[in-house]
Amino acid sequence: MGYSAALEQFDPAEAVALAAYAEAHGFSGTMASDHFQPWVPQQGNSSYVWNVLTAVAERTRGDFGPGVTAPTFRHHPALVAQASATLGLMYPGRHWLGIGAGEALSEHIVGQYWPEAPERINRMFEAVEVIQKLFASGIRHRDVKHDGRYFKLESTRLWSMPETAPQILIATGGPVTAKRAGRTADGLITTGAPLDKLGPLLERFAEGRRESGRSVADAPKVLQLHLSWAATDDEALRNALTEWPNGGMRFPKADLRSPWEFEQLAKMVRPEDFEGRLLISADPDVHRAAIQQYADLGFDRIYLHNVGRNQREWIDVFGRDVLPKVVR
Question: For 290-295, which contacts have Cβ atoms below 8 Å and span 24 or more sequence positions?
Answer without folding.
Answer: 290/227, 291/1, 291/225, 291/322, 291/326, 292/325, 292/326, 292/327, 293/195, 294/192, 294/195, 294/198, 294/223, 294/225, 295/326, 295/327, 295/328
